[in-house]
Specification:
OB fold (Dihydrolipoamide Acetyltransferase, E2P); 5-stranded mixed beta sheet; 24 strands
């Protein structure tokens, strides 16, 4: 599989895209006025404690206070409770404990007014403030540093048992040599590397933590102690790995910056770094803008003619698979299986591209044969392994439903690029013209017995006025009025489903 990274920057926005075999698979978008805070480290002050929720709110100097759950406030570090499931345990996303932990109360861990060093685990979403954790993690390209934790872990994506033990020993000795005030997790990119290759990464992470400590001394909360890297540095650190053949940028400034970040241990051979040439902008010339636009639509068409529908709600993401125009050739069961298998790859790509997180429910087309369900599940598991985000998947049900939980730290693509519609309030629906007509009718009939002899004036959106004009006489008759006593007034200041009724004064 050919992998490329394209970086596009205009004043106010940076976009970093991962392309796999010419298809946009992941994208990171960072805007200057809305830069995320995930990964930032703050000196926070406990504002209040909520024993009923087993959580505390900390003042961080942001628009909203941070939310600290009891499991993120103290006790064993997540890496001590379970081995890392991915390259790095992202802040606030601890693996599930392998055994029950003693019950600890939030009021035993923090006190009001106390100052604590915390890290943002999830950006603020809607009316919720950022989720924070006291379990700090500092990610590098090859290692993740765990301050204050005497532990060395290895990513589960490194499956060879001998290599895992070798890396654990190498990093353990390296931590002792550096007298590191904490432990490390070995990332996938470190597979096959010697201690000499890992040492610069380890040393840089330890120095970063020591710099945070120096900023902490003498500081008072709330204060930002460490800001996570920007989109370019962060994405190259996490995405750039062996197998990325090329990095293309759209400006001379980016070219120099990326050359300084690309290559090094874990990325051999180093990818070619070049500047985009041509009249069309980088994303347009590669067809990435079109793919990005399509990622904001609820329906995604498959090559066979089937389609996938993705809907985000407050509680979960629902994904539905349909055969659409695809009728197959070998029979119904074979048609369903082919459609589901084709949908698997597109579903995982869309999950990665749209950065969907939380609970995801996939409704595959019902399969009656157990062998078909097993084949689809295996294909889904295989595709999910390509995803850098940590996720868990349950077995497929007899009705074709699969539940996936996926780590979420930042708003999804849709929420990052779109805003709630002022007309529908985000529901995607407005009341129909017939509904509006009936509402106006009922209001006239409610007022008519107490009204005088004047006219009723219904102010509506111009589109609604145009649709109702032909039936004005019938509407007046249904309301018990003479036709000349009902006036429809078009008001472009109104939203599509807004209306008001002005009636005559009571007699």
């Amino acid at each position: 599989m050919r992998q490329e990274i394209c970086i596009d920057r205009v004043p106010g926005e940076t976009r970093v895209a991962l392309i796999e075999d010419g298809v946009l698979s992941e994208i990171v978008i960072e805007r200057a006025e809305a830069r995320g805070v995930t990964g930032n480290i703050y000196l926070g002050r406990v504002r209040n404690i909520l024993p009923g929720m087993q959580a505390a709110f900390l003042e961080l100097g942001l628009e909203r206070d941070g939310f600290l759950y009891v499991e993120d406030a103290g006790g064993p570090h997540p890496s001590r409770r379970a081995e890392s499931e991915a390259d790095a345990p992202p802040p606030g996303e601890p693996p599930v404990a392998s055994s029950p932990l003693p019950r600890t109360r939030i009021e035993d861990l923090v006190k009001e007014g106390q100052e604590i060093i915390v890290q943002v685990a999830k950006d603020p979403v809607a009316r919720k403030g950022p989720r924070i954790t006291a379990h700090i993690t500092l990610p590098g390209r090859l290692l993740v540093f765990l301050p204050g934790v005497e532990h060395v872990g290895v990513s589960r994506r490194i499956e060879d048992a001998e290599e895992r033990e070798r890396l654990r020993g190498e990093v353990g000795r390296l931590a002792a040599t550096l007298e590191a005030p904490g432990g490390f997790i070995v990332r996938t990119a470190a597979a096959g590397l010697a201690a000499a290759d890992l040492e610069p990464d380890a040393r840089a992470l330890v120095e970063t933590w020591e710099a945070i400590g120096r900023r902490r001394r003498g500081a008072s909360a709330p204060r930002l102690l460490h800001q996570e890297a920007d989109a370019v540095e962060r994405t190259l650190r996490d995405m750039l790995r062996a197998g990325v053949q090329e990095v293309v940028v759209d400006s001379e400034d980016l070219l120099e910056e990326v050359r300084g970040l690309a290559g090094g241990p874990g990325v051999q051979p180093a990818p070619a770094v070049r500047r985009h040439e041509g009249e069309l902008p980088l994303f347009e010339s590669r067809g990435l803008q079109l793919q990005l636009d399509r990622a904001l639509r609820p329906r995604v068409w498959l090559k066979s003619g089937g389609h996938v529908v993705l809907e985000q709600t407050e509680a979960l993401v629902a994904i539905d698979v349909n055969t659409g125009k695809y009728v197959g050739r070998a029979g119904l069961e074979e048609t369903i299986l082919r459609t589901n298998l084709e949908a698997v790859r597109e579903i995982v790509r869309q999950i990665r591209l749209r950065d969907l997180g939380g609970i995801i429910v996939v409704d595959f087309i019902d399969m009656t044969r157990a062998a078909d369900r097993s084949e689809v599940l295996q294909a889904l598991e295989q595709e999910i392994r390509k995803d850098r985000a940590r996720s868990r998947m349950l077995q497929i049900s007899e009705f074709g439903l699969v539940e996936i939980t996926r780590q979420r730290s930042r708003p999804s693509l849709e929420r990052a690029l779109c805003t709630v519609c002022e007309t529908c309030g985000g529901s995607g629906r407005v009341r129909s013209i017939e509904t509006l007509r009936l509402e106006i009718l009922r209001e006239i009939r409610r007022r008519r017995p107490r009204a005088g002899a004047g006219s009723f004036v219904a102010r509506v959106h111009p589109m609604v006025a145009g649709a109702l004009t032909g039936g004005r006489a019938a509407l007046a008759a249904a309301a018990g009025l003479d036709p000349d006593r009902l006036v429809l007034a078009a008001d472009p200041e109104l939203r599509l489903d807004q209306w008001s009724l002005l009636g005559p004064d009571p007699a």
